[in-house]
Amino acid sequence: MGRIHGHSGEGAWTLVLTRRAHSDQRLRYDAHVKGDRFEGELPIADLTTADHAAVEEWDIHLSDGETELRAGRRLDDIRGKKKIFVYPEQHTGNIGVRPYYTVKDNLSLECRTGGAA
Fold first, then answer.
1. H-helix or E-strand containing 41?
2. SS3 83
3. C-alpha angle with apex 28: 26 to 30, nearest 5 degrees?
4. Confidence class for position 112, pLDDT limits 50, 70, 90
5. Is there a contact between 37 and 3 (Cβ–Cβ < 8 Å)?
6. What share of the chain is helix, strand, coil (3-state, %, to 5)?
7. What are phi and psi of 46, to 5 degrees?
8. Which of 17, 43, 56, 100 could link 27 by a cystine bridge, Cβ 3.0 to 4.6 Å?
9. What is the pLDDT of residues 48-70, one digit of tens each?
10. Rounded to whole angstroms, how far apart are CA atoms 31 and 12?
11. How do 90-92 and 2-3 pair as beta strands?
């Protein structure tokens, strides 16, 4: 869940995950938007792939079909979130998945074979 800065409204929004090493591979999930707030969820098992590398990264966007917004833009004064915030890891099979902030303070998912991300 989060807030959409600079956009508001309702309609058909989608949570889009793009596999960074294979940008043609995208996963899409319904996102519920009301005003400037959104909410979406995904089964982490969907992040497992047959050709999974030891570390995979998935970038997160919110899209209404015309506009694609990168998750994690600043709505606070905190910079350098990558070194500040650590989120818990979830497991699916032999894959550990955890959200993390990139060096640009965008939100992504890191998947590691064997867990311990």
1. none
2. helix
3. 170
4. very high
5. yes
6. 5, 45, 50
7. -65, -15
8. 17
9. 888 888 899 999 999 988 888 89
10. 8
11. unpaired
